[in-house]
Design goal:
single chain; 332 residues; mainly alpha; 3-stranded mixed beta sheet; two-stranded antiparallel ribbon; disordered C terminus
Length: 332
């Protein structure tokens, strides 16, 4: 969950340097998904010309970078749903509302989604994390993802993960995806089996020295893939530790009722799924819903009644709306 100040600094830094920032690269690599509250997107739209002037950046340049690198990655949630917070969370948000009400929507969404709250605002961060606001790893992640952040351990590991994932995606996986685009799944399976069979036959025909070199090359490729998977997993585990604390669903059920607990759990499943969208059946089958009634029909009815998630195609749900820049048609 990102706030307007973080986005402002990030876009201006990208404009000045001509490079994509760590925040954008990590989101593009699929390490996390970026969400923002409705007022955050409105602030960017409203103030980008003033911000550009203060940063000595051409406003058109700001718009180009925003449309190209940021808008496609951001999922907009216009306003946080009501009635999904525990009493303890409500108390922390009430304290924030007395100090800085503008930050309440973003902090509320970070709590509801159990998200990592990327903000430099002390009171807002306190409302989300409570006593965890002084956590060293939280600060390290903020530094790693902030524009121009230092190259600490977290930043170095994150950049390594992004480079490896991008390299793998632009390599064999990218080629395979390009050459099999539009091919049915069953036919892809047959093609893969055919390629494996031909490869095995050709390998068998090689002499011992050629076969050994080929096997060594394949082992190196497999080791590279394993390194990518390991880096990606380790970065994900570290990121898990700075998610906003999530209350036990039984507490939410007791204080807000079973429907509220199901609603919040459903939003968290959509927010953290590896897939960008899920069906009601996939959500209902999640182990996260074992504490609450999770019949597929009930999940589907809940999804249709709320506004935080939208239906992408028939029966597929995505959390947040595509972000549009009014002057640029087709930007999403």
């Amino acid at each position: 969950m990102v706030d307007a100040n973080v986005l402002r600094k990030d876009v201006l830094y990208a404009c000045r340097t001509g490079r994509r920032t760590t925040l954008v690269n990590a989101a593009r690599a699929g390490l996390f998904r970026l969400f923002c509250a409705g007022h955050v997107a409105s602030e960017v739209l409203k103030h980008h010309e003033r911000w550009s002037g203060e940063g000595k950046i051409d406003a058109a340049r700001f718009t180009d970078v925003w449309v190209r690198d940021y808008a496609p990655l951001l999922h907009l949630i216009p306003s946080p749903p009501e009635g999904l917070k525990t009493h303890a969370e409500e108390a922390r948000l009430a304290a924030l509302r007395a100090k800085d009400p503008d930050d309440v929507p973003s902090a509320t969404l970070a709590l509801i989604l159990g998200a990592f709250y990327l903000s430099e605002d002390g009171p807002a961060t306190t409302a989300v994390y409570g006593e965890r606001r002084h956590n060293d790893e939280l600060r390290a992640w903020k530094n790693a993802l902030s524009a121009g952040g230092d190259a600490g351990t977290i930043a170095l590991g994150l950049q390594t993960t992004v480079v490896l994932v991008d390299a793998l995606r632009s390599g064999l996986i990218g080629i395979a995806a390009l050459t099999t685009r539009g091919v049915p799944v069953w036919l892809k399976g047959l093609l893969l089996a055919g390629v494996a069979g031909v490869g095995g036959y050709q390998l068998h025909k090689l002499d011992s020295s050629q076969r050994r070199r080929t096997v060594d090359a394949l082992k190196g490729l497999a080791a590279f893939g394993g390194a990518v998977a390991l880096e990606y997993t380790e970065a994900g585990v570290k990121l898990d530790r700075v998610y906003a604390p999530r209350p036990d669903l039984s507490v939410l059920m007791q204080e807000r009722g079973a429907d509220a607990a199901l609603h919040r759990a459903t939003l968290q499943i959509l927010a953290t799924s590896r897939s960008n969208w899920l069906s009601a059946a996939e959500i209902a089958a999640s182990p996260s819903l074992l504490q609450v009634a999770q019949a597929e029909k009930k999940v589907r009815r809940l999804l249709r009644a709320q506004s935080s998630a939208i239906e992408i195609g028939r029966g597929r749900w995505q959390l947040g709306e595509p972000l549009f820049w009014p002057e640029v048609a087709g930007c999403s």
